[in-house]
Specification:
Elements (H helix, E strand, L loop, with lengths): L13 H11 L3 E3 L6 E3 L1 H20 L3 E2 L5 E3 H5 L2 H7 L4 E5 L2 E3 L6 E3 L4 E8 L4 H11 L8 E10 L13 E11 L2 H21 L6 E4 L11 E8 L5 E11 L1 H6 L2 E3 L5 E3 L1 E8 L1 H10 L16 E5 L4 H19 L2 E2 L2 E2 L2 E3 L6 H11 L3 E5 L1 H6 L1 E6 L12 E4 H29 L1 E4 L2 H7 L8 E5 L4 H10 L2 E6 L10 E2 L6 E2 L2 E5 L3
Parallel strand pairs: 3-9, 17-20, 17-21, 24-25
Antiparallel strand pairs: 1-2, 4-8, 5-8, 6-7, 9-10, 10-16, 11-12, 11-26, 12-13, 13-16, 14-15, 18-19, 21-22, 22-23, 25-29, 26-29, 27-28
Helix pairs in contact: 2-6
Amino acid sequence: MAKSAISPTRAENYPEWYQQVVKAADLAETSDVRGCMVIKPWGYAIWENIQRRLDAMFKATGHENAYFPLFIPMSFLEKEAEHVEGFAKECAVVTHHRLEPDPETGGLRPAPSAKLEEPLIVRPTSETIIGATFARWVQSYRDLPILINQWANVVRWELRTRMFLRTTEFLWQEGHTVHATREEAEEETRRMLDVYAEFAEGAMAMPVIRGEKTAGERFPGAVATYSIEAMMQDRKALQAGTSHFLGQNFAKAQDIKFQNQSGELEHAWTTSWGVSTRLVGGLIMSHSDDDGLVVPPKLAPAHAVILPIYKSDDERAEVLAYCDSLKDELSAQTYDGEAVRVRLDDRDLRGGDKKWQWVKRGVPLRIEVGPRDVASGGAFVGRRTASFDGGDGKGQGTPRGELVSGVADTLGSIQKSLFDRAESARDAATTVVDSLADFEAFFADDAPGGLAYAHFTDGPEMEKKCKELKVTPRCVPIEPLAGDDGPGECLFTGKPSPRRAVFARAY
């Protein structure tokens, strides 16, 4: 049995395997600031591709980008009681605006004379500061709707962190919109949920369930929260994006009013929605294997890497000339409406070491070229997904013309195989559960777990049992899943239940 590149393997220690994949793929590293990470170029390139695609989708639905302050006056959060209660324990607070020498320690201290009149919160999310801005922008129904997105960083003081999945500071986008009617705001909330689902499945090759959060899982201050939920390879769920219908709650707190067509003043209806660098973590855990990262072609920083192989200076010149022209030919092809992204790695490094670096980075196609390939007019091509696409993972010789003309189809087949593989795993791990005993057995410590689809009613009985089993209700699917039989009885109380929810252990 071949030795894997990542140790421990997924089966041996999944959490540590995840950390080692991040390290081996050179995605990120821990920083000198507790709970924060340094996103390295390869990891940031993946985030840039996520950002670029989503940004185009937002703009296609009429949204514009803007930027709002990093700091939020504490009084703004206090205006929306449920909101501040939901985030109070995670807030970083700025109390002074200057440092001075500390005469006792010889170091520095906040200058007592520089204490702020009002503390500032480093944004955990921006509903309140953006709402205050919108109150100035909105006067009449003619000013609506306002459709704004911002790409930013936020800070939530986390006790237990894991790179990309949960860090004290992370990157994200947050959309904020204002509407004249409830119907328009609800439509916006669902539209953006669909945008996230389309992106997750189409670009990330990560199947998701779209649904509404239960009351206990709603965003603080929201009337309704919708999410897309994905299942990772360890059968835990990942909330991959959220879209919130805020009703008039934040409009009333921030005094966002407009004069309607009848000349009357009324409060507006608002929404917010966001995804973050957590998506990079979801990508890792959806597709990667015991040899390292696997990146779907649509988000890969490079679609293909060319690795020249030679022994002498003469061979080097011949092989590199061939590789340069092959790179130009491949780069002239298009995949998914973009030029094929190709890298040529001509570093002075042992061939085996070089190959495994790119395997662990998850590049979809590895193209090796030696003197024999130059002579035959071909290349040796390895697919990163070959080991679970039915191949041996070693690759095969391919004529140059066939490689170039077929590169887009090859990348497309890799993208599809990743989605199909993840969807099959998700479906196999989803079970309809009809009794509390079966629910407990499904989530027992020695059971594999997965997604349980069960009838429920919100209340203390459900919360107590879920807490005991370290399980959460992920969402009530918008489109019923296979096995939904309509109304039934809540597992936890026996009361009538109109719908089933998806339950899982989660990140």
